[in-house]
């Protein structure tokens, strides 16, 4: 196609739009750093004989979710804005599936009257596709070394579709729940609570890994190969997420007026400082709990607990409030972690961080920020989608939490029923003990640990 400069739509390629394109593209870079951080944590904690298999399954699961989102996911999320304009969900899917008109259009050939800011929306596909993949990585932490690869990969595709539909309702400002008052700035509901709901079903079905909760005749203890890798993994996540915060803001005239994706009044500086302070607060309390209990896990759970608890309200908290939420959250993680540990539940990440701290953060937000105006869409002055017509409320926060966790539970129950009767769900215990690296990839660990020689 020959470029006719006289026929381009200059409004789609202004300097202001380029700045926004770069800003949202930086959010994708931040999200990818989160992926790398999560894989480092996995590399430091998976059993040596399963290390490569565990990490590569997470990587492949990421790309399955990523690709599935490109096929259909974005059209599901963007449907809320189409419906606001009087169109339908199917119109959105037709425009934004992988072969859709808007997905494949060149911005400067597209009339801004048809779709303004097209480049930004196209970049947003990449951004949200990365989180569709992250959901699968997070889910894998709860089924790692126990779920059959075929079952996990099928689950990844289904989870990407279901979480996309869930994001339509729970993340944004004009979806069914968000427009009614459910507030979730950072996508805690569909990114964290949804896979945690799935883990509630999968974890008991798969059981504990040999040697994890108690000595096994062939594995006296479950030994992580290099816990030290978790610290740089944690800091990579910390480094990447500020760029993601920028991608959770919309920018309107005059030039750089930041409005939350929830349509709450906020600012770039306060949102990023809130993010920083929940990590700091969580790290401080985690440090205290870790040294008091002698359990290193709380040095890692602490800052993550603060982050997850505060994430839904980065846009509406004041910095001192965010710090207090960060300080309190590790206590919730401690309660859930110890409760599950004493009952032999082999799930040490999603339950304390997401079911515990994610839910805690949602409810605290509903209590202490009740009445905060949000929802609708900027510039709409009346009707069902009037700008900031809705308010944060505890009832809607409870409804949103129940919807996200419940969707995960139902999805996993249906999948479990099908998978158990087709490809199977659980890896044989002897194969878990002998090592999945050896079974699938003919890889041997460089050392034999004293636990494996029992």
UniProtKB/TrEMBL annotation:
Q: Name one GO molecular function term.
A: ammonium channel activity
**A GO biological process held by the record:** ammonium homeostasis
One GO CC term, this protein = membrane
Q: Membrane-spanning residues where? A: 22-41, 62-83, 121-139, 151-171, 183-202, 222-252, 272-291, 296-314, 320-339, 351-372, 392-419
Cross-referenced Pfam families, in alphabetical order? Ammonium_transp
Subcellular location(s): the record lists: Membrane
Presence of the UniProt keyword Acyltransferase in the record = no
Q: How does it sit in the membrane?
A: Multi-pass membrane protein
Q: Which terms are listed as keywords in the entry? A: Ammonia transport, Membrane, Transmembrane, Transmembrane helix, Transport
Q: Which residues form the Ammonium transporter AmtB-like domain?
A: 32-439
Presence of the UniProt keyword Aminoacyl-tRNA synthetase in the record: no
The family annotation for this protein states: Belongs to the ammonia transporter channel (TC 1.A.11.2) family.
Protein name (database record): Ammonium Transporter Family protein
Which taxonomic lineage is given here? Answer: Bacteria, Pseudomonadati, Pseudomonadota, Alphaproteobacteria, Rhodobacterales
């Amino acid at each position: 196609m020959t470029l006719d400069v006289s026929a381009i739509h200059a409004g789609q390629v202004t300097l202001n739009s380029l700045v926004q394109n770069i800003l949202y593209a930086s959010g994708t870079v931040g999200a990818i750093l989160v992926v790398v951080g999560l894989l480092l944590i996995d590399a430091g904690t998976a059993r040596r004989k399963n290390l490569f298999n565990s990490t590569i399954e997470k990587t492949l699961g990421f790309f399955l979710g990523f690709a599935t989102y490109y096929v259909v996911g974005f059209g599901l999320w963007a449907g809320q804005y189409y419906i606001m304009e009087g169109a339908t969900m199917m119109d959105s899917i037709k425009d934004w599936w992988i072969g859709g008109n808007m997905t494949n259009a060149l911005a400067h050939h597209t009339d801004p009257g048809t779709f303004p800011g097209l480049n930004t929306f196209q970049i947003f596909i990449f951004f949200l596709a990365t989180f569709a993949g992250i959901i699968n990585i997070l889910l894998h932490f709860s089924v790692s070394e126990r779920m059959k690869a075929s079952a996990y990969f099928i689950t990844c595709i289904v989870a990407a579709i279901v979480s996309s539909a869930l994001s339509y309702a729970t993340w944004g400002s004009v979806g069914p729940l968000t427009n009614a008052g459910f507030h979730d700035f950072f996508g805690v509901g569909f990114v964290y609570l949804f896979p945690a709901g799935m883990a509630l079903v999968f974890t008991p079905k798969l059981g504990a890994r040999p040697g994890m909760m108690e000595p096994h005749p062939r594995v006296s203890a479950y030994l992580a190969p290099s816990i030290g890798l978790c610290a740089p993994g944690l800091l990579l996540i910390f480094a990447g997420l500020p760029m993601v915060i920028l991608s959770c803001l919309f920018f309107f005239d005059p030039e750089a007026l930041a409005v939350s994706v929830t349509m709450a009044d906020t600012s770039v500086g306060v949102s990023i400082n809130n993010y920083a302070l929940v990590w700091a607060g969580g790290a401080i309390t985690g440090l205290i709990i870790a040294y008091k209990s002698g359990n290193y896990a709380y040095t890692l759970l602490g800052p993550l607990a603060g982050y997850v608890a505060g994430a839904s309200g980065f846009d509406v908290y004041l910095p001192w409030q965010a710090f207090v939420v960060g300080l309190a959250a590790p206590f919730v993680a401690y309660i859930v972690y110890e409760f599950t540990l004493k009952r032999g539940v082999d799930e040490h990440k999603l339950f304390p961080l997401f079911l515990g701290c994610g839910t805690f953060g949602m409810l605290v937000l509903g209590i202490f920020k009740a009445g905060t105006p949000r929802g609708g869409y900027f510039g709409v002055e009346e009707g069902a989608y009037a700008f900031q017509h809705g308010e944060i409320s505890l009832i809607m926060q409870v409804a949103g939490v129940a919807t996200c966790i419940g969707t995960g539970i139902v999805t996993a129950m249906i999948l479990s029923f099908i998978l158990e009767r087709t490809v199977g769900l659980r890896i044989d215990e002897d194969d878990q003990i002998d090592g999945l690296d050896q079974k699938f990839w003919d890889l041997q660990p460089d050392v034999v640990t004293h636990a494996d020689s029992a």
